[in-house]
Specification:
Length: 442
């Protein structure tokens, strides 16, 4: 399988813009292209999915073994895989390569195209590019210059070749395809009404200014040998999944794994005031409930349905935004309180800084629907909200800092941490077993 990684000199350099431009251009050519994202990000894969019309999968070396990363790449890849990097190319966990785009490129033996942002600079950009090329042994094959005036590309190409890197092209500043951002990164794909038009424009620019054929040549690599992790069928239970603008942070990898284990996913929208479907389990993902707090509060039928389902014993996983929604009260982005579902006694409040940002490991203090007491789960957090509920069932640890997190009951696992089942498939297995038990007792 051909594969290429779009790495960057840092966050905000234009990795997502370039990745979406390439996906759009390859799609227009009729290439069977697929998309991946390094790290735990939810938002960028939404843009990939909008362009190619198919899921985009995460490759995360904190959550996934080398074999699982390569298996995911091979299993979910088409004729060409375009992998978007995370942060700066070498940026990993705790000032190391661990979890970085560089590490993923080495695990998968993928050629890297470095995106260099030329905003406010010209020749100085090459000092940065050369630093990336010489910093350590790597798979960097060439460069795409972002926000570069066309008149400068010839000279930048010459400088690029001098240090042994291929200039793959450039993108000028494209105002008509600009996407806004907020504290958690880019605005979500579903919030942009003319997104498909923006992606079409990016594809046209890529065809005009980027050497697509040279990229295809660089993407030619032999696939490394790896072992395919075995997935056992657990149950044919039905899982209700809240999915709309308020609840949109999901790993397609998790959905695929649950499906492989026999589950059928049934999607519904609390924002549309839809009740929980007739199912055996419930997942409330992260997203932006705070931006939709007033509407969620008004949708009494949906919140009553969620409350009654959990109250009746339906197993439920609620992550971050879903956790916030389950509180008695939840503040919106302006700090105004709104009525929540009421399953979790307490209120969820807005803060002015990130809370426990990044990867961490948490240890179960008691048995729950995902694991037993003492079991360790890898997770990550990215949120500005906090809770006054202190009925926590896990102790989290990040670089020696500890705190309690996650509310559990006989059928509930709810908290700010996000979980990737690829880190521990027994978590998915246990959830489905809980759903099967609930199904048999109804």
């Amino acid at each position: 399988m051909r594969r290429i990684m779009i790495g960057g000199t840092g966050s905000g350099c234009g990795k997502t813009t370039v990745t979406c431009a390439l996906l759009s251009a390859f799609k227009r050519r009729g290439t069977d292209v697929c998309a991946f994202k390094c790290g735990p990000d939810y938002i960028d894969p939404m843009f990939h999915k909008n362009v190619i019309g198919a899921p985009s999968y995460n490759l995360d070396s904190f959550f996934m073994s080398d074999d699982r990363i390569n298996a995911s790449l091979a299993e979910n890849g088409g004729d060409l895989a375009v992998i978007e990097g995370v942060m700066g190319f070498y940026d990993g966990i705790d000032f190391s390569f661990s979890g970085s785009s560089h590490e993923i490129s080495r695990i998968t033996d993928t050629a890297v195209v470095l995106v260099a942002d030329c905003s406010g600079a010209s020749l100085s950009v090459m000092a940065s590019v050369r630093g990336f090329a010489d910093f350590t042994e790597n798979n960097i094959a060439g460069v795409i210059f972002n926000n570069l005036p066309e008149r400068l590309y010839g000279k930048m190409s010459d400088e690029c070749r001098k240090i042994g890197l291929e200039p793959f092209g450039f993108l000028p500043r494209i105002k008509e395809a600009r996407v806004g951002s907020r504290r958690l990164g880019l605005v979500s794909a579903e919030e942009i009404s003319d997104l498909k038009e923006k992606m079409r424009i990016l594809g046209e620019y890529a065809e005009k200014y980027i050497d697509m054929d040279a990229l295809l040549r660089a993407a030619e690599r032999e696939t490394r040998a790896f072992s395919v992790p075995k997935i056992n069928k657990i149950s044919d239970v039905r899982i209700a999944v809240a999915r709309d603008r308020a609840f949109c942070f999901y790993y397609d990898d998790n959905f695929k794994l649950l499906t492989k284990m026999g589950a059928k996913l049934v999607f519904f929208s609390p924002l549309a005031n839809e009740p929980v479907p007739e199912c055996d389990g419930l997942i409330l993902g992260g997203g932006y409930p705070e931006l939709n707090a007033h509407r969620l509060e008004q949708n009494a039928a949906a919140s009553l349905s969620v409350r009654e389902a959990i109250g009746a014993g339906m197993p439920c996983i609620a992550e971050c935004g879903g956790f916030m929604y389950l509180h008695e009260s939840m503040e919106d982005e302006n700090g105004e309180p709104h009525k929540g579902v009421g399953v979790i006694k307490g209120k969820c409040v807005r803060t002015n800084s990130l809370r426990h940002f990044g990867y961490m490991e948490m240890t179960a203090l008691r048995d729950n629907i995902l694991c037993g007491r003492g079991h360790k789960i890898r997770a990550h957090e990215f949120h500005y909200y906090d809770t006054d509920c202190r009925e926590h069932s896990f102790e989290a640890n990040k670089n020696g800092e500890t705190w309690e997190c996650v509310v559990t009951s006989k059928n509930l696992f709810a908290g700010f941490p996000h979980i990737h089942f690829g880190s521990d498939v027994t978590l998915a297995e246990n959830f489905l077993k809980s759903c099967e038990e609930y199904k048999c007792t109804r």
